[in-house]
């Protein structure tokens, strides 16, 4: 086998522009150095691509040979059929004229396996992502840009110095005057409230409990909807903090952990954040109470369906509603609405007894399911993409802070990554919420149901999880004894 046969066919690329002309390397010079590089590496230059930007030094100038080279790399051969396996340039920044050029080049070169690349310093593996971002370094940065970046860096250093250190004002509810040590009783209340909200309890219910228990704010006032919500939504409860509405994160995008003792875990706070963020779309009263006209006060209103056949021999199926009626033991009944309200008006049942029976059936069903199945929410699928993006962003940020890449390259790329990371984080939060709920559900459901800590909305959510509806079959004329067989649950799978 001859050396000739082993030589790797590559192309040489040279470019001259107002900038590159200053370093004294004309295009012939550049190609000559490239030839030497090729010889050193055992490669053979089979074609020369040359661009001259001197005549049209506009930002949008097309470099015909650069574009031709990218095409050749894509197909793997030159117009005459000569196979090419790589590229040599004098220095990497000959490739980078506009943001995106370098990425396009790397993409074209690595389009196929086994391609090679070198500049006068030696060969580089462009399949390696580390080197890919290193390629962004070869950019000229003006003095002005450097000064701008240094200012930015000083600001960010100052901010970093502030991180994790509690700032002025009164102590927050849950912590002592040093703002670091927990005030045990208050911290326990906060933690319980966070977990209750995650489990679906309303802020109203929690407020009523706190008022009953005489819990006051640190100023000695009654808790209000808004103050309670802000206290629970403050990332401080899990050791994080917000600045201008955004979580304070380190260069890795990881939220900075403060020095104070946390009350709940970051996962729990993320669940709270997801719940409150999702709610902000609903109309609110002046005091911040979310107005939701659909909130019913009875366990099964709307869940019970009338099973009576009407005169056309079709089933009524209207959602039954609750109405107060002192004639019944529990003080209310479930009734089919009147004809004018879309029902048949022909079915009514003792509310308390229906609640009791359906509750028992639902709890038994859920316990049976819990025994059969483990947690249903699997691990989040976006972890690796998020980690990869964060690492990439970290690398770029570092390069930019070290003045190695320009604003023009850094900002657009960083913004692109930032928005994708935001999407992923939102998705991660939703997932954390689901997972948290799944965990809560698996805890002894019966014990929680009768603990007095669940409000009607929470209980309805649990019922709905178990069944679509309960059909109430007609009981016949007169005041027959309550017959549970006339209640037919439609279970979910
Ligand atoms: Zn009906």
From TrEMBL:
This is Recombinase family protein. Residues 172-282 form the Recombinase domain. It holds the Pfam family Zn_ribbon_recom. SUPFAM superfamilies: Resolvase-like (SSF53041). It comes from Kitasatospora cinereorecta.
């Amino acid at each position: 086998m001859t050396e000739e046969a082993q030589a790797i066919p590559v192309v040489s690329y040279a470019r001259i522009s107002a900038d590159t002309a200053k370093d004294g390397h004309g295009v012939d010079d550049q190609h000559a150095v490239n030839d030497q590089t090729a010889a050193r590496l055992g490669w053979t230059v089979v074609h020369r691509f040359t661009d001259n930007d001197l005549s049209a030094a506009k930002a949008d100038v097309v470099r015909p040979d650069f574009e031709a080279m990218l095409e050749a790399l894509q197909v793997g051969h030159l117009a005459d059929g000569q196979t090419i396996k790589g590229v040599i340039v004098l220095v990497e920044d000959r490739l980078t004229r506009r943001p995106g050029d370098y990425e396009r080049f790397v993409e074209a070169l690595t389009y196929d396996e086994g391609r090679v690349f070198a500049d006068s310093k030696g060969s580089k593996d462009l399949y390696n992502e580390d080197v890919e971002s290193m390629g962004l370094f070869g950019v000229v940065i003006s003095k002005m840009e450097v000064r701008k970046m240094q200012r930015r860096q000083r600001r960010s250093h100052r901010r970093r110095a502030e991180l994790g250190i509690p700032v002025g004002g009164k102590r927050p509810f849950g912590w002592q005057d040093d703002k670091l040590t927990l005030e045990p009783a208050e911290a326990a209340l906060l933690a319980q409230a966070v977990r209750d909200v995650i489990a679906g309890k309303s802020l109203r219910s929690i407020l009523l409990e706190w008022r009953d228990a005489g819990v006051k704010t640190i100023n000695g006032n009654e808790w209000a909807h808004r103050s309670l919500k802000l206290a629970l939504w403050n990332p401080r409860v899990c050791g994080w903090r917000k600045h201008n509405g955004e979580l304070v994160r380190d260069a890795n995008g990881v939220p900075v952990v403060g020095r104070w003792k946390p009350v709940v875990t970051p996962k729990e706070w993320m669940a709270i954040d997801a719940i409150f963020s999702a709610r902000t779309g609903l109309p609110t009263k002046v005091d911040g109470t979310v107005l939701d006209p659909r909130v019913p006060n009875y366990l099964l209103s709307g869940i019970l369906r009338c099973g009576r056949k009407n005169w056309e021999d079709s089933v009524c199926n209207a959602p039954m509603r609750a109405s107060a009626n002192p004639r019944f033991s529990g003080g209310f009944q479930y009734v089919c609405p009147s004809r004018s309200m879309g029902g048949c008006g022909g079915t009514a049942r003792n509310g308390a007894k229906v609640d009791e029976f359906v509750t028992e059936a639902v709890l038994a069903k859920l316990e049976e399911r819990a025994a059969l199945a483990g947690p249903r929410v699997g691990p989040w699928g976006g972890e690796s993409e998020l980690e990869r993006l964060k690492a990439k962003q970290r690398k770029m940020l570092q390069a930019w802070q070290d003045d190695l890449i320009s604003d023009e390259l850094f900002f657009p790329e960083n913004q692109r990554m930032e928005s994708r990371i935001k999407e992923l984080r939102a998705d991660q939060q939703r997932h954390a919420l689901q997972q948290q709920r799944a965990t809560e559900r698996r805890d002894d459901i019966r014990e929680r149901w009768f603990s007095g800590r669940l409000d009607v909305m929470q209980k309805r959510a649990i019922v709905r999880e178990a069944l679509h509806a309960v059909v109430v079959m007609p009981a016949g004329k007169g005041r027959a004894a309550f017959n549970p067989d006339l209640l037919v649950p439609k279970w979910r799978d």
